[in-house]
Specification:
Layout lengths: L31 E2 L11 H15 L11 H15 L8 E4 L1 H13 L5 E5 L5 H8 L3 E5 L9 H11 L3 E5 L11 H14 L7 E5 L21 E6 L12 E5 L1 H7 L10 H12 L1 H25 L2 E2 L6 E5 L6 H11 L2 E2 L8 E5 L3 H18 L1
Parallel strand pairs: 1-11, 3-4, 3-5, 5-6, 6-7
Antiparallel strand pairs: 2-8, 7-8, 9-10, 10-12
This protein binds 4'-deoxy-4'-aminopyridoxal-5'-phosphate (PMP).
Length: 378
């Protein structure tokens, strides 16, 4: 390569990408990593064996392209949703991609794009606006209350004012952990359809990446009679398979048909499909870890409150806590916790940090670190 020192902005990149930064949760080599909402438990050995078997079988056919429509996988995912979501869905209602990030990207490629607008209620998942930007979709930052819940009236007003093509509702929300009531989702859905009565309505995406950890049931039954509603899910959290990269959604079959217009052919490799199918055979075992993590999440909430922190109620596998209003704010506290060997996440929410529920030992290490921090700052 030439030694000339050129940067991104010296290249003919799209105007809206100039001066921007990529998604960047730090990946640091620290003893206790509680920063990216992963599941701390490695997959059980019996599942590792089953993955090996399934992948070996798939390897024999790697000279061919994989099943483009991932029919077996979508059938199994539909079965999982029907069993756990209290709402019957078939493979024609399910779509899968490489992580729910790709699911969201395909949704925005289909229903957003240049000249179109998406809204989310912030603070929320930082990739929603980044994927909007990547697909040329304008982003509107909608409001939340001081306690980080969605203010239904303010949200309905924002939808009426901006008339978005796509509405994101993240429940439980990242990074705050707050769930959204079904009546609120219905109110936002109705507002979005009213605001875009000139088009065929607006798409409402309920991002349920963390729903298995919630005290509340899934919003899946809201799909009934709502063709512009989508529920997106992932195997990265509850299934403990962030490295697999498998996200999926449930929606009216017409939404799934529309996504075929933008998906790359054979986007889900045969190895991915085989691995996900093996994991789905072990759903019951994996969901037992979820129960442990929910208990640990509740212990973190109680522990942090006991130490004197302000904690946002959580329905996810992480907890938002603060307040760090002193010198350096949340970032200084993040560094001090890191200095004690524990990596948490500074999501840029003023005065707050987020910690992912880990193993009991990791959570103890975290609680020790934040207790020491509290006594050092008084
Ligand atoms: N939605 C939310 C709310 C998330 O927090 C995340 C992961 N951090 C995702 C979607 C994406 O997950 P994945 O691409 O691993 O499925």
């Amino acid at each position: 390569m030439s030694t000339t020192d050129i940067g991104i902005d010296d290249l003919p990149v799209r105007e809206e990408l100039r001066g921007k930064s990529p998604y960047g949760a730090p990946q640091l080599d620290v003893p206790v990593q509680l920063n990216t909402n992963e599941n701390p438990y490695p997959l059980p050995e019996a599942l590792v064996e089953r993955i090996t078997e399934r992948v070996r079988e798939a390897a024999r056919g790697l000279n061919r392209y994989p099943d483009r429509d991932a029919v077996e996988l979508r059938t199994e995912l539909a079965g999982y949703l029907t069993r756990t979501g209290k709402y019957p869905v078939g493979p024609e209602n399910v779509w899968a991609a490489n992580g729910s990030n790709e699911v969201i990207q395909q949704l925005l490629q289909t229903f957003g794009g240049p000249g179109r607008t998406a809204i989310g209620f912030e603070p929320s998942y930082s990739m929603h606006p980044l994927i909007a930007r990547g697909t040329g979709t304008d982003w509107i930052s909608g409001p939340r209350r001081e306690d980080f819940t969605v203010d239904e009236r303010a949200a309905v007003d924002a939808i009426a004012a901006h008339r978005p093509d796509v509405v994101f509702v993240t429940s439980p929300n990242n990074p705050t952990g707050t769930a959204v009531a079904p009546e609120t989702v219905v109110a936002l859905y109705d507002a979005a359809q009213r605001a875009r009565a000139d088009a065929a309505g607006a798409l409402v995406v309920v991002d349920e990446a963390y729903v298995e950890f919630s005290h509340r049931p899934s919003l899946l039954p809201l799909l009934e009679g709502r063709p512009n509603l989508v529920v997106s899910r992932t195997m990265s959290k509850a299934f403990g398979a962030a490295g697999l990269r498998l996200g999926y959604l449930a929606a009216h079959r017409a939404v799934v048909d529309a996504l075929q217009l933008v998906r790359l052919p054979y986007h889900l490799s045969a190895v991915t499909q085989a691995t996900a199918l093996a994991a789905l055979e072990h759903t019951d075992t994996l969901l037992k870890y979820v129960e442990q993590l929910k208990e640990e999440r509740d212990r973190l909430v109680a522990g942090l409150r006991g130490i004197g922190y302000e904690v946002t109620d959580s329905d996810a596998n992480f907890v938002q806590f603060g307040r760090f209003d002193g010198e350096g704010g949340a970032h200084a506290a993040w560094q001090q916790i890191l200095d004690r060997g524990v990596l948490v996440r500074d999501n840029g929410v003023p005065g707050r940090l987020r910690v992912t529920a880990g193993t009991p030992e990791e959570n103890d290490a975290f609680l020790d670190a934040v207790r020491a921090l509290k006594s050092s700052v008084g």
